[in-house]
Write a structure and sequence with these properties.
Oligomer: single chain
Order of helices and strands: HEEEEEEEEEEE
Shape: elongated
Number of helices: 1
Distance between the termini: 84 Å
Structural class: mainly beta
Strand content: 35-45%
Strand order of the largest sheet: 8-7-10-11
Helix content: 10-25%
Number of strands: 11
Length: 197
């Protein structure tokens, strides 16, 4: 057998083996995945987001993008001025560029109709795996005689949010965070709602 025929046969054999390795297993059975003695994940089934090739678990490729979120709001009450701070984080794999965060604050109490105020602040680029606090601005309540409730909803990467924001992220579904309701107490406070702090 000459050299070129040997190469052709070897390539043909590789193609057949490769096709057999990636063919899906159509037989329905429980999926078992575990680490072998060399530290590789092995199993005998095909998963929707991952692949098993010849029993070797292949994780999905990493997405090299930021993933921004908010998870806490803080409030500093000074007279009728309530300063609003947000904690943001980056669950992604790379640093983000600077981005906007908007707080929509709905104020109720004192017999007035609910009023919503929007405050937007700029957050510096956030490294992967970190969290930071940023003061966005403040709202004014009418007085300190009555109790006033503040419900605050934070939107991360809020600039052009309807079109996906200015930062492309690996997960765009976690950019809105409702911090709930807190109360700025008046002269005769109802403490059934926690204070804004």
């Amino acid at each position: 057998m000459n050299f070129s025929k040997s190469i052709s046969l070897a390539l043909c054999a590789c193609c057949i083996v490769g096709a057999a390795l990636i063919a899906p297993n159509t037989e329905a059975k429980p999926c078992v995945i575990e680490k072998n003695k060399w530290g590789f994940w092995v199993g005998d089934c095909l998963l929707s987001k991952e692949m098993l090739i010849d029993g070797v678990f292949i994780p999905p490729p990493p997405l090299f993008m930021p993933d921004l979120y908010a998870d806490d709001g803080d409030f500093l009450v000074q007279g009728t001025r309530v300063e609003i701070e947000v904690r943001t984080g980056n669950l992604g794999s790379i640093v983000s560029r600077d981005f906007d965060v908007t707080a929509d604050v709905t104020v109720t109490g004192g017999g007035m109709a609910p009023q919503t105020f929007s405050i937007t602040g700029r957050v510096n680029g956030q490294p992967a795996g970190t969290r930071t606090r940023t003061t966005l601005g403040y709202v004014l309540i009418p007085d300190r005689i009555n109790d006033y409730d503040l419900e605050t909803v934070f939107t991360v990467d809020s600039s052009d949010f309807a079109n996906g924001g200015e930062i492309r992220e690996s997960d765009e579904t976690n950019n809105i965070f409702n911090d709930g309701i807190c109360r700025v107490y008046g002269e005769n406070p109802d403490v059934s709602v926690g204070p804004c702090d």
